[in-house]
Amino acid sequence: MSRSDGGCASGLRSMAVLVFAWAGWFASGFGRSLELAWLAALTLVVVFALTRERGRRAAPVLAFFGAAVAFAAYAAAPIPRSPVVSLVRIAAFGAAWLTTFPSDASAGVIRRVAARLVVALTTLVIVLGAAERLGADRLGERAVAIRPLDVDGPPDALQPDAELELRFVAGFRGCFDYPEFRSEPFETNADGFRDDPWPTTFSEGERRVLIVGDSMAAGWGVERRESFPALLARELEASNARIFNASVPSYGPRHERLLLERLWERVRPALVIATFYDGNDVGDVWRHFNVSRSRGITHLRPPSDALAPEERIAYVPDPRAPPLWSPRYWISYSRVCRRVVLELSGRYPWLGLRSPARPYSRDFLRSMRREPDAEIRDALRLSSASLIAMRDFARAHGARFCVVRIPAKIQVEPASLAQVFDELDANADEFDVSNPGARILADCAAASVDALDVFDALGAVDAASPANYFAEAHLNRAGHRRVATELGRFLRDGDRLR
């Protein structure tokens, strides 16, 4: 090979490595300006080296060094929730290695072995990246995923509703499709709820109890007979009570108020129980309010509308991602890795594997602040107003009404809460673990709305008492039993079924 050909090949390899350096640095947390400055400086160094006789051999190494620095900087502070991007960077670094240090017959044993290892690793990374990208819809990422069992039946358990956003499909048959609870059956009755068939006629003296709530009351992750409404029905058998569970995931107090009015003539209950779940009901209420405004259903303008965007919303930081070399990064953000860990942890608990879950949302964290922002204050007012409106509606129709406050996982599990604050690098003093439920209960007390708080009951966990939540945040079987026990005692002791 001539000297000019060698210089050309060296230059091509250098430019290839620069491309890989760009891929390794792209979208990193250091920002676009530093990314461009780094690439420009690296290009100048390589071009300068190529103009020198001795620098032509060193140019690819210089370019590879730049790619290595870019990759190391990203690996130490990767982008959260972006496993595919991280896998692309690893593959780019492996390709940069192979481009800079090509393996041929004249290469030493160590270089040939290293090249083969890099090829194997890069191939594995590409396969994982493809699995992440192409298999996202089949990996049970959402806890609300339900797989239909009837080939000719409806493909989804939920369908759109102009007023309520979503409602269950009547007569649906399926099962949960989430690693923690994948085989539990899921069926809806002819009225479109996860409950026993509702009778068309009622027995004389029967006390009908209507429960309206979200996925917590619908028994997400457990069999229907293991949900607290079904357990409550068994607890109240001696009271001649009949439970009607009309709970639907993603519902909040605004949805429940509309649903109560829609179902009144169908059930005509003697008692209405509405659940308030701290984990997402505030966000569900605010979402439904904004959807109703966009559809012209309501024209109410809350006080936060008069404020600038930066004055309406309190900033909640993104969770701090672990470094790429930490298994926690891949278990946290990779669907493939998380699925593998959940499968292995369920079948082989002695391995000690655990999938770190993030059982919280930004709206929930905002509502936990001691001083909530303007939008959250509006959402809390809308939530309380909806619960009070349900009480007034039930009372006007001769029925009793009560609220059951269900706390979120991180509120009653100190270790989960500490992990959240650590990930967000947040100041714990800015938050109150009792919120937003404590504010809702205070509003209910001020309006003389009957309420039960199961915060302490779900937080009573020790060596003899199992945890009450799944890792993904819904109540598990133990949690449903506790809520049913507390609610049954509350109804009996207060003679609320008369």
Could you please describe the fold and organization of this structure?
The protein folds into two domains: 3-134, no CATH class; 150-319 and 358-493, Rossmann fold. Helices cover 50% and strands 9% of the residues. The chain has 19 helices and ten strands. The protein has helices at residues 3-25, 32-50, 55-76, 83-100, 109-134, 215-218, 228-235, 253-267, 281-294, 309-312, 327-333, 335-347, 362-368, 374-396, 409-412, 414-424, 437-446, 455-459, 477-493; strands at residues 146-148, 158-161, 165-168, 173-176, 185-187, 207-212, 241-245, 271-277, 400-406, 450-453. The strands form three sheets. The chain has a five-stranded parallel β-sheet, sandwiched between helices. It has a three-stranded antiparallel β-sheet with strand order 1-4-5, with no helix packed on it. A two-stranded antiparallel sheet has the order 2-3. Strand 4 and strand 5 (185-187) form a beta hairpin. The model is unreliable at 1-5, 20-33 and 139-144 (pLDDT under 50).
Helicity range of the residues? 40-55%
Q: What is the first-to-last residue Cα distance?
A: 99 Å
Number of domains: 2
CATH architecture of the largest domain: 3-Layer(aba) Sandwich
Radius of gyration: 29 Å
- How would you name the oligomeric state of the polypeptide chains in this document? single chain
* SSE arrangement, N to C: HHHHHEEEEEEHHEHEHHHHHHEHHHEHH
The portion of residues forming beta strands comes to 5-15%
Largest sheet: 5 strands, parallel
> What is the CATH H-level superfamily of the largest domain?
SGNH hydrolase
| Low-confidence runs of at least 5 consecutive residues | 1-5, 20-33, 139-144
Tell the overall outline: elongated
